Amino acid sequence: QMRLAESGGGSVQPGGSLRLSCAAPGRTFSDYCMAWFRQVPGKDLEGVATIDSDGVTSYAKSIKGRFTVSQDNAKNILYLQMNDLKPEDSATYHCAAALICTFTYSGVDYWGKGTAVTISS
Q: Are 81 and 17 in contact (CB under 8 A)?
């Protein structure tokens, strides 16, 4: 079992920035591809970004150039730096771990409970 705990969500104005964090106490990320998904009520989970154990990243088109995924392997913390935030980025953001990198929620092995992000003026 792998417990994932997100933090860093909040409310900011359009154009602002937030950094989300995801910790996995007692576990290492090296065996997994780590990812961020987001979900708006009433809609499916959307894959946002992935990063594999070699640090190779992949992004959804909707956020490419604005969001950056990274991880601190020594601390086992996953990050999502979100810049130039837009109202359509408002969602609950979930940290995820999968054996194979995927933007499909059915391919995920472990989920965090999520942290809420609201972009509003």
A: yes
